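Q: What would this complex look like in 3D?
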Amino acid sequence: MSEQLIVCRGLSKAYGRKTALSGVDLEVGRGRIVGLLGPNGSGKTTLIKLMCGLLQPTTGEIEIGGLPVGVATKAQVSYLPDRMYFANWMRAVDLFDLFRDFYRDFDYEKAIAMCRSLGVEPQDRLKTMSKGMKEKVQLVLVMARKAQLYLLDEPIAGVDPAARDFILHTILTNYNEEGTVLISTHLISDIEKVLDEAIFLKTGKVMLHDTVDHIRETQGKSVDALFREIFRAQPLEGGEF
Amino acid sequence: MDWKLTDDRPIWLQLTEQMTRRIITGVYPPGSRLPSVRELAAEAGVNPNTMQRSLAQLEQDGLAKADRTAGRMVTQDTAVLEAVRRSQARVVMEQYFHAMAELGYTPDEATALLKEEKL
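A: Here is my prediction, written as structure tokens for the whole assembly.
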């Protein structure tokens, strides 16, 4: 088993003439909870999609557990997309059936139990669920796998603050101990306490990659405060807010 | 007792302080088994690795011992517990004298006042 779980070397991605990521070098170890932080359009979702093989890099390479991203790595990566992709007529249990067929590491019983503890009835149709409840179902699907790498793209954006804490609790108590969780978000203050490390992305480049405690130690402020300082919005061309 | 985490300092340090306080005030009595890293982390809503680091610090401070079979135990060495309790008391006293000095009281006056108020 290779030392680092995620290795990116000179990773770049352009959509036509628009550059989303440029020259990202990154190493992330195992058993960590890592925050992928950056303002809108900084490349968070692009980086995550490259890691789960939904996008191909323009240049550079990316390895998960020592293997290039492909069929073998997909079996080890559990991905929570930033949008919903379910058919409305389905029930949560239908999705669990589907996932059980697809992924060898999917724990059906655990999914049912997690659903109940999040207050979602597994027999309900998605059509009857609120946006927040659907997000919870989606999170259950992802966390009920025993994966090496969990890629969570904005897992807490759509739910209320109380449910947010509960979801973070679910992530903390359900992730596989050798597995790494990568969470992209801009709601930093909500998740700061659960993170080991933070990665700051700015216009497609890694600005900072450090442990949360080290950031607090050296900067004397929270990661959230540092983020606000670094990414303070600059009015364009001398404009005013 | 709730966990209070502030923004300006490393989380593991704050966890260590609060665990220390729980131990010296008997929330976790001498010789008792501490909850597991995962339980404590979930309770405080923090990362297990962070909690692990603070428990390692407790071991270094002599307040807890790792036991191969039973997890972590609170020390039974009352001398260690008393020493830590005393050093925390010293911090409180220093704060008192410092605040009184700002109000213009000498340490002797501050001590005298304290006795008076208590009666």
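A: To summarize the key features: The beta strands of chain B are 64-67, 71-74. Residues 111 and 117 of chain B are 10 Å apart (CA to CA).
Q: Very helpful, thank you.
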